[in-house]
From TrEMBL:
Statement: the UniProt record of this protein carries the keyword Methyltransferase: no
Protein's name according to its UniProt entry: CAAX protease self-immunity
GO biological process: proteolysis
GO molecular function: peptidase activity
Lineage of source species: Bacteria, Pseudomonadati, Bacteroidota, Cytophagia, Cytophagales
Statement: the UniProt record of this protein carries the keyword Oxidoreductase: no
Transmembrane feature ranges: 43-63, 78-95, 107-126, 138-156, 176-194, 200-218, 230-247
Superkingdom, taxonomy of origin: Bacteria
Keyword terms of this UniProt record: Hydrolase, Membrane, Protease, Transmembrane, Transmembrane helix
Amino acid sequence: MNYPLLKPKYYLSLIKDLLNFIRCPYSNPLKVKTVKQKVYDTIGLFFIKICFSISIASLLQFIYEPKNLTSINMSERFGPFVLVLVAGVILPLYEEITFRLSLKFKPTYLAVTSGTFIYYILTKAIFKSRISLVDDTFLYRISIGILFMIITYTIIRREKVKKLIDRFWKENFRFIYYLSCVSFAWLHIFNFELSIINGLLLPIITLPQLFSATIAGYTRIAFGFKYPLFTHMATNILFTLLSFIPLD
C-alpha cells in the first residue's frame, strides 16, 4: 500500500508546494485534490510545522526566551480540562476566523472576521484584557465587535460594494495573504511583556507563529477552512498537554 507520510520525498514535495505558494500566493486552488490527499497533506504539513516550532523554541532557549504571560495566566485561571478546551479548541477557532476565514472573500466571511478582529484589538490594546476573560469589560468588547460585524455586513453585501471588494481581493491577494501572516504573528506580542527588548526581538520571538500562519494560509486556500482549523487545534492541544508534564 502507498503510505506517503513515510516517504521523505513526500515532505520535500510539500515544502516545495508551500514555498511556491509563499512566493506567489493565489486566491484559488491551482490543483483539485481528493479529501484523502488533503488529509495526507494537512498531516504532513502539521509534522513539518511541529518540527520547525520545536527547533525554533529550542534555539530561542539559548538566545532569549520571554515568559508567555498568556499561557501562565490561563494555567492559573483554568483547570486541566477547561484549559485544553479553551487553549485547544475555542482560541484556535477564534484565531482562524479572525485571520484566515476571509482569505477567501465573501461578505459574510469578511464581516465576521472584521467583528472578531475589532474584539481582539479592543481586548488587547484598549482594555488590556484577555481574549478568554469574562470581566467587567467583556460586554463592551463583545457588543462593539458584534455591532461592527453587522455594520460591515450591511455595507459590503450591496452588489456594487461586493464587486469592488471582490476585485480588490483578487488583484491584491498577495498583499492580503502576507498581511494576514504578519499580523497573526506580530499580534502575539501581547502574549509577552510589552518591553523594549521584546519589541526589538518581535520578528524573532514570533517566528513560530509566522511560520504557522504561512502554512495555515496556504491550507486555507488550497484545501478549505476546516483543515488549518483542525491543524491549529491539534497543535495547541499537543503543546497544552505537554505543559502538564513536570520538568523537575
